[in-house]
Amino acid sequence: MLILTRKKDQTIKIGDDIEITITAVEGEQVKVGISAPKHVEIHRKEVYEMIQKENNQASNVDVSMLSQISELMKKNKK
C-alpha cells in the first residue's frame, strides 16, 4: 500500500485519467473528490462488497429450478 500525505486542495493522480483531490479535512474525517472517466465505477468499499455479495447470491441458482423452468417452457410451446 502506498501512503501519501496531502493537504486540503492537493491532488493525487492515478494514471492519466483519474484525479483524487482532498476537498476538506474536518477532525478525523477527510472529504475526497474523485475525477474519473464515466466507465470507471467508483464505490465505497462497504458498498462494493455488498454489490459483490448480491451478485454472488444471484448467480447461485439451483440446478433443479432451471430444469423446472425448462419443462414449463416446453409445455408452453405446445
UniProtKB/TrEMBL annotation:
Spans traversing the lipid bilayer: none
Organism: Sinobaca qinghaiensis
Quaternary organization: Homodimer; the beta-strands of each monomer intercalate to form a hydrophobic core, while the alpha-helices form wings that extend away from the core.
UniProt subcellular location: Cytoplasm
Annotated family: Belongs to the CsrA/RsmA family.
Gene3D superfamilies per UniProt: Translational regulator CsrA
Record gene name: csrA
Lineage of source species: Bacteria, Bacillati, Bacillota, Bacilli, Bacillales
Its job: A translational regulator that binds mRNA to regulate translation initiation and/or mRNA stability. Usually binds in the 5'-UTR at or near the Shine-Dalgarno sequence preventing ribosome-binding, thus repressing translation. Its main target seems to be the major flagellin gene, while its function is anatagonized by FliW.
Domain of life from the UniProt record: Bacteria
Keywords: Bacterial flagellum biogenesis, Cytoplasm, Repressor, RNA-binding, Translation regulation
UniProt keyword Methyltransferase present: no
Biological process (GO), any one: bacterial-type flagellum organization
Protein's name in the database: Translational regulator CsrA
Listed GO MF terms: mRNA 5'-UTR binding
PANTHER family recorded: CARBON STORAGE REGULATOR
Keyword presence, Cytoplasm: yes
SUPFAM superfamilies: CsrA-like
GO cellular component, one term: cytosol
